[in-house]
Each structure stands twice: as C-alpha cells, then as structure tokens.
Design goal:
Blueprint (H helix, E strand, L loop, with lengths): L2 E6 L6 H7 L3 E2 L2 E4 L2 E4 L8 H9 L5 E2 L4 H12 L3 E6 L7 H15 L5 E5 L5 H15 L4 H11 L3 E6 L4 H5 L5 H9 L2 E7 L5 E8 L1 H14 L9 E5 L3 H14 L5 E5 L2 H7 L4 E6 L7
Parallel strand pairs: 1-2, 1-6, 6-7, 11-12
Antiparallel strand pairs: 3-4, 3-5, 8-9, 8-13, 9-10, 11-13
Length: about 290
C-alpha cells in the first residue's frame, strides 16, 4: 500500500488485533503511583493488575501528548509513505491540536506526501470499530481518500454505552459532584453513559442496581439496530469478566448471530471510569441520538 493507517491507544484497540493486522499505534501517557507509563495495550502493565492497584487506592492521572512526541511517531512514516491517522475524539482532549501541528510541520518537510487526520468523535471501543472497518477497506486496497471518507460519513453510527460500578471515580474526575456520588451510592444508582453526537460523553439515564444497568445497555443497543453482517459487537470491561459475559448473553439475545468480542477497558479510559466498568460498543444502522 502507498499509505499507512494508524490510530492511538485511546481506541483501546485489543493488542491481539493490533498484532494480527500490524496497525501502528500512538501510545497515550498516564501516571500511576508517581511513575509514568504509556498505554501499550496491556503489555507493560496488564489490565487486571492496573485495576487491582486502583482498588487499593492508586489514582492514575492522564495527560495529553505534545507535538514533539507526535513528530517522533509520524516522521518515520511520512519519510516513506502517506499517512491516514484515525484519532480519538477532539472533544475529550486537547491533544489533537498537537496532531494538527505535527501534521503541518511534516507536510512542509515532505511536501510530496499526503497526511489525513480523521477526528472520530469516539473513544475506546467505538473508535476501535471504526479502525477495524477502515483497516478492512485498507486491506482491500481502497485508496486513502475513500477510507477516510467512509470513517467521516459513518463515525456517528459507531457507538458506546457504558455503566460504571463505583461512582467515586466519576467524582474524582469532576464528572459528578460529591453529593451526587454519595446519594447515588446510597441508592445503588448506576449511571448510563453514551458517546454523544458532539464527541463528548453524556449521562443519559440512571438505573438502580448492577444487573439492571447491564440489561439497560443491551436494550438501548438494540434501539440502534446493529447489523451483525457489518461489524462485530465489542463488550469492554474494567476487570469485570463475569459482568462482561452476562452482557454478551444479553447482546446475543438481541442480535442473534452477532460476533461478540470481550475485551478490556484500557488504563487511560479506566482512569476516569474505574474498575467494574462495562460497555457495549457497536456500529448501528441508526446514528447516535444524544
């Protein structure tokens, strides 16, 4: 191919798929117990160990990559070929500005190259689904412009529905107030969070009890009519394998014959939602509504 398709680890792209398809990934940074890490999809610090540390009181901190780091990733690629970079939502971090700055500098250095950035308005599993679909087109020999156009035209069909187990992590990140966290915990309320049309995460409902929350995710997914012939459905969990299996059972009741992958919420996303988070991610035949 005359171009490279690349993404970032905020997609939570499973490492086995990265390896299978040889997809280059920009590893996003986080700090844990005073030590800096990069989210290398569970290779340096496996997901269970990470969430066990959070349960023990560790409070991970995430940060944005700077322009120089992106240059280090992109320059060796642009030296040899064009580049299509499929980025996580610009509404969740300022880091995409560093991507654009690096692109501008590199296009001056390599004026013969093409460098396209697609803002997916997604993060985590929904972003992975877009990357996988784009890479299938890439492997089929489709030109960069066509692959980028498909992602742009279909990105709002890729969706994620999340529920968290412990509200203290949303409180710590400033997404809910201390009072709301206290009351919600007392009442066993579980928020339902969706990726919105503007690329942010929005709370769309609250459900009492863990099992009901997971059932709600499956019911809500069905409203957007995923097509099992078009894309797999990804269930993500932050060290909650039994709940992920329960979600898979419910998903298959709603979408018989679907390919359902159970994968991990990565450390950058998990820093904000905490252990026990479960998500159902899919490409619907209908677009997001929030």
């Amino acid at each position: 191919m005359e171009y490279v398709l690349m993404t970032d680890s905020d997609s939570d792209l499973p490492f086995h798929l990265k390896e299978e398809y040889d997809i280059p990934v920009v590893y996003m940074p986080y700090a844990l117990n005073g030590k800096e890490y990069f989210d290398d999809l569970g290779q340096t610090l496996d997901h269970k160990a990470y969430y066990d540390l959070m349960r023990e009181g560790a409070a991970p901190v995430t940060s944005a990559l700077n322009e120089e780091t992106y240059l280090e990733y992109f320059d060796p690629i642009l030296e040899k070929s064009d580049l299509l970079f499929i980025a996580f939502s610009s509404k969740m971090s300022s880091t995409i500005q560093a991507v654009y700055a690096a692109r501008e500098k590199l296009l001056k250095k390599y004026p013969e190259r093409k460098f396209t950035v697609v803002d997916t308005l997604s993060i985590s599993g929904p972003q992975t689904l877009l990357v996988l679909k784009a890479h299938a087109l890439y492997r089929a020999g489709k030109p960069m412009e066509e692959v980028a156009a498909w992602v742009e035209e279909n990105k709002l069909r890729s969706q994620g529905l999340f529920t968290v187990d412990d509200l203290k992590y949303l409180k710590r990140g400033g997404r809910i107030s201390a009072a709301a966290a206290t009351v919600g915990t007392m009442l066993d309320l579980k928020p339902i969070i969706a990726e919105a049309t503007d690329g942010t995460l929005q709370s769309i409902d609250k459900v009492r009890g863990r099992k009901k929350a997971i059932a709600y995710l499956a019911d809500k997914m069905a409203e957007f009519a995923p097509d099992p012939a078009e894309s797999p459905i990804i269930i993500l969990h932050a060290d909650a394998p039994e709940d992920a299996e329960r979600a898979k059972t419910l998903v298959l009741q709603k979408v018989p014959g679907a390919e359902v992958l159970i994968e991990h919420v990565g450390p950058v996303i998990g820093a904000h939602c905490g252990p026990g988070t479960v998500a159902i991610c899919f490409i619907g035949t209908k677009q997001r509504t929030p």
